[in-house]
Design a protein that fits this description.
- The structure holds 2 protein chains of 2 kinds.
- Chain A is mostly helical.
- Chain A has 8 helices and no strands.
- In chain A, α2 packs across α3, α5 crosses α7 and α7 packs parallel to α8.
- Chain A is extended.
- The two termini of chain A are about 20 Å apart.
- The model of chain A has no long low-confidence stretch (mean pLDDT about 90).
- Chain B has 2 domains: about 90 residues; about 200 residues, Rossmann fold, CATH 3.40.50.
- Chain B is about 55% helix and about 10% strand.
- Chain B contains 13 helices and 6 strands.
- Chain B has a 6-stranded parallel sheet, sandwiched between helices.
- In chain B, α2 packs parallel to α13.
- The longest helix of chain B has 29 residues.
- The radius of gyration of chain B is 24 Å and the shape is elongated.
- The mean pLDDT of chain B is about 90.
- Classes of the chains: A mainly alpha, B alpha/beta.
- At the A-B interface, α2, α4, α5, α6 and α7 of A face α3, α6, α8, α11 and α12 of B.
Chain lengths: ~220, ~325
């Protein structure tokens, strides 16, 4: 029964969700609202659970002096600092001028922006070392990337200013994005969609059982 | 000089450079702007040095990735001090979004979902500011929410910037009547689904804790049918895909998108299918929108840096391919 009950719940809820999507009227609409409310409640609990789990794992790592344990200490200190400051500020902790707002503006934003900004350097370095015209397909990708990279910035039109209106690099970049790129994206999305449908059906019908821990 | 010493020297130079600008700013000095001659000399120096790198590559001396990093750093930083302005060509998808907002009557309610966090702010924050500015200029009512925890905080920053403008101050916009921030709600796409039947159930209070019923702007907003237009600023999941699949497909919401450059290509499929009214893609999309709104914001200011960095990346791809073909199509650069 430990396996059958979760499978039955999964099947019933899965079928219920399918029905409410195609028949958005009572009583199915109530079910949709009810599940949505509960999803938000569970989601809110999961955030707390996730934060506590991060704290627990970091604490264990720091206590056992595992590799890079110092970073775990930084996590714990940052976590406690932001939580304590937020709690001390009360319900208006996000209002401009509070200590929490200061931490957000002058610590969180610069740190996270720095992490993301490093990407520009790695993209350039990776392009230099790995973006090669190895074969026809790679050359095609390279040429398309050239046009889009140049066409997506104003300098592209400065370079192609001699071309007639409608044939400049910005127009070419728009064409690449709207047609070949879009077609490729559609193929990927349709593939993903079909994959989701087949996997969902396997879960609903109880063929796929990995989510309850075991079986195929 | 050893590699370590070179790295320390580069870092020291950057720190000194930053300190000079910081001290100038703190002491109330004007921002440093290069003269056109200096700017052209900098550009010429960059081109010559890139040609030198190409010559070195042809001779078989490959440069290390640290040199690429320095070039990218220079290409991003120095254009910020150059006086050049660029004509920004408007793409059809940005024009379409602008036109769709222009058709809204004064007093129409616009829902803006801030689904991003600070790492994506350089691309999305300028869009948020110019979009909110346009809404206020056209006397539209703005309702803000977020599916990402940091979203409403980013919205507050955008609001603060827009409302500090003299033109906006003259409008005497009031919180709760002209704009409202409903805050963050957990639940990803289920939040959008539930908003299809009841906004209040997902946002019983705004981010300040004021109850939904006491906010005049949203008091009569029951669900999406009371919203004239929606704009989603998205950097990933949950974001634009979920808004299209639920709000647009299921509830018929009129939706415009502002996406990071990484996410934007996926959204073109929805644009071509008519599911979204327009897309602002990356910083370039933001700059185009600012141009349409006759406003010079951060996106416009940063476009020169973007142009230079794209050119540098293209130059290094060419240099890398020269090295690849000269070395008999062996990936010699991987060792570097």
């Amino acid at each position: 029964m430990r396996r059958e009950i979760p499978l039955i719940i999964t099947g019933v809820v899965g079928v219920g969700f399918l029905i409410q999507y195609f028949i958005p009227h009572a009583p199915f609409s109530y079910m949709s609202d009810w599940f949505s409310d509960w999803f938000s409640i569970v989601g809110a609990c999961a955030i707390v659970l996730g934060a506590l789990n991060l704290l627990k794992i970091s604490a264990q790592k720091a206590i056992k002096r595992k590799k890079d344990w110092v970073y775990s200490l930084v996590i714990i200190a940052s976590f406690l600092l932001i939580v304590i400051v937020g709690l001390l500020e009360g319900k208006d902790f996000r209002v401009a001028g509070t200590n929490f707002d200061w931490l957000y503006n002058y610590m969180y934003i610069p740190l996270s922006a720095t992490m993301f900004a490093i990407l520009a350097f790695f993209v350039a370095s990776a392009s230099y070392r790995a973006f090669r015209a190895r074969n026809f397909e790679a050359t095609l990708l390279l040429v398309a990337a050239f046009f889009v990279m140049l066409g997506r910035v104003p300098v592209g039109d400065v370079i192609s200013n001699f071309m007639p209106e409608g044939w400049r690099l910005s127009n070419l970049a728009s064409w690449v994005m709207n047609y070949p790129q879009s077609a490729g994206q559609r193929a990927i999305m349709i593939g993903i969609g079909l994959g989701i449908v087949s996997t969902s059906l396997r879960v609903i019908l109880g063929i796929e059982r990995s989510h309850i821990g075991g079986g195929k | 000089m050893s590699t370590k010493a070179k790295e320390i020297l580069t870092l020291a130079l950057i720190v000194v450079f930053c300190l000079v600008f910081y001290i100038r700013k703190v002491s109330g000095g004007e921002g440093i702007i290069f003269s056109p001659l200096v700017s052209w000399l900098v550009i010429a120096a960059m081109i010559i040095s890139l040609l030198w790198v190409l010559v070195l590559t042809i001779k078989g001396r490959l440069i290390s990735r640290r040199v690429v990093f320095v070039y990218v750093g220079i290409a991003l930083a120095l254009p910020l001090f150059m006086p050049f302005s660029q004509k920004i060509p408007i793409s059809p998808e940005v024009q379409a979004l602008y036109d769709s907002v222009k058709t809204l009557k004064p007093g129409s309610k616009v829902l803006i979902s801030f689904d991003y966090d600070p790492p994506s702010a350089p691309e999305l924050q300028p869009m948020a500011e110019s979009f909110i500015r346009l809404c206020f200029e056209r006397d539209l009512k703005v309702i803000i929410m977020g599916l990402w925890p940091q979203g409403p905080q980013q919205a507050n920053m955008a609001l603060e910037k827009v409302l500090s403008d003299d033109k906006m101050k003259a409008k005497n916009l009031k919180y709760g009547e002209d704009y409202v921030n409903l805050g963050f709600q957990t639940g990803n796409e289920f939040v959008i689904q539930r908003m299809g039947t009841s906004f209040e159930s997902m946002f019983p209070t705004d981010y300040r804790g004021t109850s939904y019923d006491s906010l005049p702007l949203v008091r009569n907003v029951k669900n999406f049918s009371n919203i004239e237009y929606s704009f989603n600023l998205s950097a990933g999941f949950p974001g634009s895909v979920e808004w299209v699949q639920i709000a647009v497909d299921r509830y018929g919401v009129q939706l415009g998108l502002g996406n990071t450059a990484v996410q934007a290509p996926q959204m073109y499929t929805y644009l071509n299918a008519g599911q979204v009214t327009g897309i602002l893609g990356g910083m370039n999309g933001g700059a185009e929108f600012e141009s349409l709104c006759h406003y010079k914001g951060k996106a416009t200011k940063y476009m020169l840096s973007q142009s230079f960095s794209h050119m540098i990346v293209i130059a290094f791809i060419i240099i890398g391919n020269v090295a690849y073909f000269l070395s008999g199509r062996k990936s010699a650069l991987k060792k570097k």
